[in-house]
Amino acid sequence: MRLFSSTKITLAMIKFEHTVFALPFALLSALLAAGGWPGGRKVLWIVVAMAGARSAAMAFNRLADVRIDALNPRTNSRALPAGHLSRLFVTVFTLASASVFVLAAYQLNPLCFRLSFPVLLFLLLYSYTKRFTRLSHLYLGFCLGLAPLGSWIAVRGEIGWPPLLLGLAVLLWTAGFDIIYACQDVDFDRRQALFSIPEGYGVERGLRVSRWLHIGMLLALLALVRVQGLGWISLLGILLVAGLLWHEHRLVRPNDLTRVNAAFFTVNGYVSILLLVALGLDELVN
């Protein structure tokens, strides 16, 4: 019972349900790579790989940030600083999740297996980027952008332009919403010498950068539609995503950050699922 309880607390701590942010892009890339349904076995191991990689990265992030989280009023109730979990348990959970990711990569193909080790290194390094660079938002985007690249390799065993464009779209989208999220901690980050775009340039400029990044995301998606030969269903989906992003930026103002969570968690979950449905359906019917 203790193991079950600790595991449940850990999954809540890493917000396991937010795997939905990157998973739809991995599944979409697999659909595009296969020109349709890639097969149940491929999909299963792609999902397992995504869950393992994200769980390892998030658990490691909580370990790396436990001292910082304890000092921040917004995060000091998290499981580790609050004493609900031990560092040993979270360390074991991180290693187990990383092992699941490597196992899933092995099941996909030899190239995925070989790449799983540097990918893990990239994912874990993110936890330290805000200590030395304001580009941590872009680095996080790069980490999530690896998902469609990995799925494409899982299906085809090689890289092509479609996953690069989809990965770029994920990078820009993630960096944009991460800047919005970082606006909450501007004062704290300045006191603790932590780096972010809002900390360095102010909330108003940070939100402006976020808007431009999201515009870049839409352009990357339009390029993907052209390269992949998709049609009106994809264009409609991108138009709806543009509306969601517009709504996201309407929710957050420089002098009103009370709706950051709605912008960050709710809207972005809809964005990824909508793109999977629209572009995936377009690929299936073409």
User: Care to count the β-strands?
Assistant: 0
CATH architecture assignment name: Orthogonal Bundle
Average pLDDT across residues?
Answer: 92
N/C terminus separation: 50 Å
The shape is globular
Structural class: mainly alpha
| CATH topology descriptor | Tetracycline Repressor, domain 2
In the predicted model, the low-confidence regions spanning at least 5 consecutive residues are none
Order of helices and strands: HHHHHHHHHHHHH
Number of discrete helical segments = 13
Main pleated sheet: none
Radius of gyration: 19 Å
Percentage of β-strand residues: under 5%
Write down the CATH class.
Mainly Alpha
| Helix content estimate | over 70%
Oligomer: single chain
- Give the tally of structural domains: 1
CATH superfamily (homologous) name: UbiA prenyltransferase
Walk me through the topology:
Elements: H1 2-13, H2 23-34, H3 40-64, H4 66-71, H5 87-108, H6 110-129, H7 136-156, H8 161-182, H9 186-192, H10 197-201, H11 203-228, H12 232-251, H13 260-285
Helix pairs in contact: 2-3, 2-7, 2-8, 2-13, 3-5, 3-6, 5-6, 6-7, 7-8, 8-11, 8-13, 11-12, 12-13
